[in-house]
TrEMBL record:
Signal peptide: none annotated. It comes from the Bacteria. Residues 3-269 form the NAD-dependent epimerase/dehydratase domain. This is NAD-dependent epimerase. Pfam families: Epimerase.
Length: 342
């Protein structure tokens, strides 16, 4: 298939693009490469896919991978660009769209709300419009566990009400799900939203706990432990996320059933809840170093606990993420040391 992956220079988008190419698909990656975190990490991810960094810096120019047998091209483009995005769709004739581009981060949405509306609302609407006008059969898109907000019932199920988000980031992701439902109903193409749960692993984002903790401990800085450590997360290793996304893309296309207009939501998580202090302990053990901990109160927009019920994913795609924290933490730290030459 020919697949558009937006957010291809991002953490999840890079891994999904890499996996799709390995499986023989033709992938066009799109990213605006903003400066929410160091763009060098984004360009280095693209380099792993054979894209020249200098070419990647130019807007609206499609550049092809220089690696042999790698069907990957990249274009730097903003989803909010209502002129350039339709042109890309009309010229490339995609079969499937996988929208992983978004302004990420719960806490940053409190400081810079406009960025979330531009990317996560305006940009997503533009994606939906391009799918509508270019006969895209299936749109797979990233949602987030943050949509569960103040829900107290554990584990979180996709049938739960998600009417109480506590960050603008979460509100934009819930909005994406509502918008996708509307377009599936009105215009007859399938949409599948994926609620990711605390993704971590090699090439991860520098603003996330795995990266922040590892970097601080190695460099003898205290780590910030919010809610005084009384938090739990359904930490999900990146390879488990990638496998889930690719299965949904491929099985949906290859289904013997007619690809009727439908709307689906799935949790992709490890189906377990790990105490934050146990997560930190796994990092300490791998580094053979004890963290200096700065115990802090809960931050605005945070929740105390997340846990994904993945029964629907198991039933429909025969898939359940299962990478242990110990294995995932070890893989991340090995990558971190190699990348930063430690």
């Amino acid at each position: 298939m020919k697949i558009l992956v937006t957010g291809a220079a991002g953490f999840i988008g890079f891994h999904v693009s890499e996996k799709l190419v390995e499986k023989g698909h033709e992938v066009v990656g799109l990213d605006n490469i903003n400066d929410y975190y160091d763009p060098k990490l984004k360009y280095d991810r693209l380099s792993e896919l054979g894209i020249d960094s200098e070419k990647a810096k130019k807007f609206n120019i499609l550049s092809k991978s220089k690696l042999p047998n790698v069907s990957f091209s990249f274009i730097r483009l903003d989803l909010a660009d209502r002129q350039a995005l339709p042109g890309l769709f009309s010229s490339q004739k995609f079969d499937i769209v996988c929208n992983l581009a978004a302004q990420a981060g719960v806490r940053y949405s409190i400081e810079n709300p406009e960025a979330y509306v531009d990317s996560n609302i305006v940009g997503f609407l533009n994606i939906l419009e391009c799918c509508r006008h270019n006969a895209i059969e299936h749109l797979v898109y990233a949602s987030s566990s943050s949509v569960y907000g103040l829900n107290e019932k554990i584990p979180f199920e996709t049938s739960d009400s998600v009417d109480h988000p506590i960050s603008l980031y979460a509100a934009t992701k819930k909005s994406n799900e509502l918008m996708a439902h509307t377009y599936s109903h009105l215009y007859g193409f399938a949409t599948t939203g994926l609620r990711f749960f605390t993704v971590y692993g090699p090439w991860g984002r520098p603003d996330m706990a795995m990266f922040l903790f590892t970097d601080a401990i190695i460099n003898d800085r205290p780590i910030k432990v919010f809610n005084k450590g009384a938090m739990e997360r359904d930490f999900t290793y990146i390879d488990d996320i990638t496998e889930g996304v690719v299965r949904i893309i491929e099985k949906k296309k290859d289904s013997k059933n007619n690809l009727k207009a439908d709307y689906q939501i799935y949790n992709i998580g490890n189906n377990s809840s790990v105490k934050l202090l146990d997560f930190i302990s796994a990092i300490e053990q791998k580094l053979e170093k004890t963290a200096s901990k700065e115990m802090l109160p809960m931050q605005p927009g945070d929740v105390e606990r997340t846990w994904a019920n993945v029964d629907d994913l198991i039933n429909d795609y025969d898939y359940r993420p299962n990478t242990s924290i110990e294995k995932g933490v070890s893989a991340f730290i090995d990558w971190y040391k190699k990348y930063y030459k430690i």
